[in-house]
Write a structure and sequence with these properties.
single chain, alpha/beta, binds beta-D-ribofuranose, binds calcium ion
Length: 322
């Protein structure tokens, strides 16, 4: 059995990622730690609870994390995810924030990993601020982790937020730098280009969302804005360079909960550019091994897309009992 802690900035694709984890057999979700990102932290907290409510899993502990990046100026992605971060379709009966745990996210990560040494996988689908703070609290964290999965960064200079920067890394470059430098556990990265290469065709999305379940109806509602945006000519031309819907965070989560999904990855040392007028926040791949880093990451190259689609289908129609 796997045990998981998920740092999210819920977010439409974060919601999908959480639902994929909930539907995975033999995976126990220890907690969800929230971080600023797609939308301000208060929305992230609400959105996360909304997703858990739809899945009937409000028993999963949710933690309040960092509301701002370490050094960078905060930014959000309201154009794509909606001002509320979840497609701007509010739920008047959304669960209240009194359900949140008292402990803060970085402390919670440290505690959960300490109590389950060698068993916890962290899946990070947001800016990496909570993780960077957690490792300052406990520098031995990586030794006790089973693995780390990240959605973020890029393998060439194609950005989705700045000219060369992917949202999660560019939103908190210092945090991304610290995490890539110091998390020496097995680390798997689903980059922006990887997500573009594996984007989901519209025909699949229609079939996926047409399922007759409450979870499918919820997903259809919250994903409408971002899916429409992803289909627009401008977005296709300027941003995604893919032909469909980029399920970004969901690839990282799906690979974490199903170790047969990833078919190819490249083991390489990576870091993050912290300066540069156009390149701040961009992931740097050290092909020539000039940085002499001992720790290498697994940069995802390909997945079994049919298996991935099946996991998405299942996550909207499986029961989420404990
Ligand atoms: C990442 O940024 C966010 O908008 C998504 O949720 C994903 O984590 C993609 O660059
Ligand atoms: Ca995200």
């Amino acid at each position: 059995d796997e045990e998981e802690v998920d740092p999210v900035d819920t977010g439409v694709d974060d919601a999908q990622a959480v639902m994929v984890a909930l539907a995975a057999p033999d995976v126990e979700i220890l907690g969800i730690t929230c971080c600023h990102g797609n939308t301000p932290l208060e929305n992230v907290l609400k959105n996360t609870l909304r997703v858990l409510k739809v899945c009937n899993r409000l028993d999963i502990p949710v933690y309040r994390g960092c509301s701002v990046p370490l050094l960078a100026r905060k930014q959000h992605a309201g154009d794509y995810h909606g001002k509320d971060g979840l497609g701007d379709v509010p739920d008047p009966d959304a669960p209240g924030l009194e359900l949140l745990q008292k402990r803060k996210a970085p402390q919670a990560i440290v505690k959960m990993v300490k109590e389950n040494p060698g068993e916890v996988t962290l899946v990070a689908t947001a800016p990496l601020t909570n993780l960077a703070v957690a490792i300052q609290l406990d520098p031995t964290l990586p030794k006790k982790l089973k693995a780390l999965y990240i959605m973020g960064g890029n393998t060439d200079s194609r950005g989705n937020t700045t000219v060369c920067g992917e949202f999660n890394f560019v939103t908190d470059p210092e945090a991304a730098y610290i995490v890539l430098d110091r998390f020496t556990c097995p680390t798997y990265i689903a980059t922006w280009e990887f997500s573009c290469r594996n984007s989901l065709p519209r025909s699949f999305c229609d079939q996926w969302l047409a399922q007759n379940t409450e979870k499918a109806a919820f997903m259809k509602k919250i994903a409408r804005l971002s899916m429409t945006k992803a289909q627009s000519a401008d977005y296709q031309k300027e941003i995604t360079a893919g032909k469909g819907f980029n399920a970004c965070d969901t690839y990282a989560m799906a690979a974490a909960v199903n170790d047969t999904l990833l078919t190819e990855s490249e083991e390489i040392a990576v870091t993050v550019e912290l300066e540069g007028t156009y390149t701040r926040g961009m992931m740097v791949l050290d092909y020539m091994e000039l940085l002499k880093k001992k720790h290498k990451a697994f940069v995802m190259k390909s997945v079994d897309l049919e298996k991935f689609k099946q996991m998405l289908m299942d996550c909207l129609n499986r029961n989420y009992e404990k």
